[in-house]
Amino acid sequence: MAFGILLSISVALSLLQLPCHAHVLPRDDVPQGYGALPYYPSPHGGWIASWKVSYAKAQALVSQMTLAEKTNITGGVGIYMGKPCVGNTGGALRVGFPQLCLQDSALGVSSTDNVTAFPAGITAGATWDKSLIYARGAALGKEFRGKGANIFLGPTVGPLGRKPFGGRNWEGFGADPVLQAVAGALTIRGVQEQGVIATIKHLIGNEQEMYRMYNPLQPGYSANIEDRTLHEVYLWPFAEGIRAGVGAVMTAYNAVNGSACSQNAYLLNGILKDELGFQGFVMSDWLAHISGVGSALAGLDMSMPGDTMVPLFGFSYWKYELTRSVLNGSVPLDRLNDMATRIVATWYQFGQDKNHPPPNFSSNTKSRDGLLYPAALLSPSGQVNWFVNVQADHYLVARQVAQDAITLLKNNGSLLPLSGSSRLSVFGTDAAVNPDGPNACSNRACNKGTLGMGWGSGVADYPYFDDPITAIRKRASDVAFYNTDSIPSVPAPKPEDVAIVFLSSDAGENSFTVEGNHGDRDSSKLSAWHNGDELVKKVAAKYSNVVVVVHTVGSLILEPWIDLPSVKSVLFAHLPGQEAGESLANVLFGSVSPSGHLPYSIIKAPTDLPDSVSNLKGFAFGQVQDTYSEGLYFDYRYLNKMRIKPRFAFGHGLSYTTFNYSATIRQVTALAPFPPPRGPKGPTPAYSTAIPLIAEAVAPAGFSIIWRYIYSWLSPEDAKAAHAVGVAGKDKYAYPAGYGTEQSSTGPAAGGDQGGNGALWDVAYEMEVTVRNAGVKYDGKAVAQAYVQFPDGIEYDTPVVQLRDFEKTGVLRANRGEEKVLLKITRKDVSVWDVKAQNWVVPKVDGRYVVWIGEASDGLRIACYTDTLTCEEREGPV
Ligand SMILES: *[C@@H]1O[C@H](CO)[C@@H](O)[C@H](O)[C@H]1NC(C)=O
Ligand SMILES: *[C@@H]1O[C@H](CO)[C@@H](O)[C@H](O)[C@H]1NC(C)=O
Ligand SMILES: *[C@@H]1O[C@H](CO)[C@@H](O)[C@H](O)[C@H]1NC(C)=O
Ligand SMILES: *[C@@H]1O[C@H](CO)[C@@H](O)[C@H](O)[C@H]1NC(C)=O
Ligand SMILES: *[C@@H]1O[C@H](CO)[C@@H](O)[C@H](O)[C@H]1NC(C)=O
Ligand SMILES: *[C@@H]1O[C@H](CO)[C@@H](O)[C@H](O)[C@H]1NC(C)=O
Ligand SMILES: *[C@@H]1O[C@H](CO)[C@@H](O)[C@H](O)[C@H]1NC(C)=O
Questions:
Q1: pLDDT value for 83
Q2: Given 146, 192, 435, 572, which residue has the most CB atoms within 10 angstroms?
Q3: Average of per-residue pLDDT across 255-273
Q4: Which of the ligands is closest to the CA of residue 254?
């Protein structure tokens, strides 16, 4: 979502006075071999058993709706228009279907007060703790419900973090499809169990911020992704989210293979709705909707926020145009019925027909009263904020996530934990809250004070900010704080004195530029902001015990100082949200052992990664082409293949104690090369498909309109004209090649249930892992990670190892405290996507897969073999 960009775009573009309905964009060819194939018609929703009841209810309601009511609920009423959320659909109030409130962000209810500002996705990912990630989701869901939102615009699982410079990686959970998938699915469960619809986003390939958006002068970039790479990497988290029953999908701004995601028929109709069996509805990202008939046929179900590419004029590609397109026969009524049914069924699926509170807040103002239709300019006002406090005790979950994410990268000489009697000197503006107030910069579009979240639409306002320096002062009696990023003159330290240096690195959405970074870290690259590297070096020259604490959106290059002898300890605290202080102090002073693990690799130089990943795509005339030439090989998959040692590997994270692992393996389901055939699709709602009556398309007499509000009614003249075209049936729309209207009752072999063929989730092997605290002094939590290595001599190139499952233990007591955890390997986990077969294939059923178990991708200690069903201690392959 790009909320902040809107005003600037609209101001700039309104000068151009462009007609809003027709435009020809320059479009460069995608590279040889990439292309967007046709896939029609858009598959109906409703054929999956777990949605059956909701679809039956939806059918009953939608059959009572007029044409204009159906087109009303498939689109927003316009940006900043009416109802208080960042997106608001039209209602069909006559039949009891309300306007829906769609609200940012993935880490808290945005643009309002009395909410919790949770740690960002990347921080949740760094905990590697499934129950905690779920608990964060549940708390988020409660807050969205409490504020009256219907739809939570999260979780973010794309970007996946392919490009370390990418601006929004921190909204997601880490640079690995499985970590991202597990965390995304658990967030969805947590949110949706509260009766709030989650939105998995952004489908797909939004791996950099710059040039992502279509505008009247230039198309958004094209992410050119080969089919196997799409399935095994970028689509994987979406499949898992759909399997978890996610209610909504948001398309990305960019194109895939040259076709914009909001109207890419192969992606939406083919992959999402047919292969992955998605039953909910597909919305555009904000202002990513760029065509009327085309996007409807391609499978888009909801236009957000309803406006055309140039917003704020009350124009839409849908609403009245969609009404017209159905009346004139260009969009089959069947397609509109499916769009409306998907939206209404999802509303029923999460019980929103029963006691769902209406919105209690306004995204547009913090005041009690405000304009009811801010974008209308002339608008009545009234109460818009009720200040409902939804925080409950969610700070506890937020703090636990922040704390359990803290990742100890290095602890030479066991400098940490500190004792309360240490003499501490703390350096860096990142240690204390922004002196202007934690919410001083709108959309957090500045990096001042402790960095708790990135910037853009993926933020929430802090109700308060627990900053590190305050928490440190509570624990230690002798603290000198130098709130500066350049070293001041300090008294000569004693040899045992400890210095703590705070660093940060920020990123966000392209709608804002912060310190020269256009969303992506295009200016700072992977260096600490505010000259942080110099600060560490200077402090390290004075003090012999230095702890570096890093608040960051992602990977950072630590080479300028990581080997300095006095830099003994390094903690990554990621983006902690409001609970930055106590969470950190608990780790620094040893109330708990650190237990976070890196959700990405820390490389030594950007050139350690392939050019397609290490660089952002720069400006081009026409469409910027972002080709995924590295295929499956990004982050640790690439480093391992090229035998490049990172500074700290994906999954790395130390504790104050150490752990011993032992494991056994057993087979659960016998495998065959292909999964068992899928079942047929169940029935879907059927409606009359005759061209509707003119009366269904026009406003009741005397209805007074609000200027620039987006309505779905046509003028009586337009309705009559369109209807004449529709019933005559002679003027045909110029349908795309490959267009058809016949629904398939079978569907693709790889499909069959939500997320794909249900047999893909059969557990093939199960490892029982015993984790023991091998230390005598500190309690701690461990993360058991399982990586699969495919058999030698298969016909597919596969990464050396790939994460497939993980479990975090509870607190293991010092002196042999232990816990058993189960790690699971599914059929899908030992399959590759075969492009020719268009299915998942187990390349060598009786081959020796090695399931590596350990505490980091480069800390694998136990090998379990699927052929002999034995495990042994062995040094890992990387
Ligand atoms: C569309 O939704 C708006 C907002 O709820 C409402 O005012 C209008 O009457 C609706 N139109 C139809 C056709 O129901
Ligand atoms: C993009 O093109 C590649 C290469 O032909 C193809 O494998 C893939 O399926 C296409 N993806 C989409 C979404 O069209
Ligand atoms: C029907 O209306 C839509 C929306 O205005 C328009 O794009 C399309 O070309 C029309 N179809 C015909 C056959 O006139
Ligand atoms: C918002 O919630 C408060 C308290 O729960 C309630 O009194 C008020 O009527 C609600 N406001 C709206 C607009 O629903
Ligand atoms: C939060 O809610 C309280 C009532 O619970 C209200 O007094 C206050 O104004 C609200 N807003 C903020 C920013 O605290
Ligand atoms: C750890 O510290 C010791 C003593 O200060 C030093 O000899 C050693 O090189 C350090 N190791 C690392 C990895 O920095
Ligand atoms: C941990 O493993 C090491 C090496 O296998 C062994 O020497 C040690 O006794 C084990 N410690 C515990 C507490 O199990």
A1: 75
A2: 572
A3: 98
A4: 2
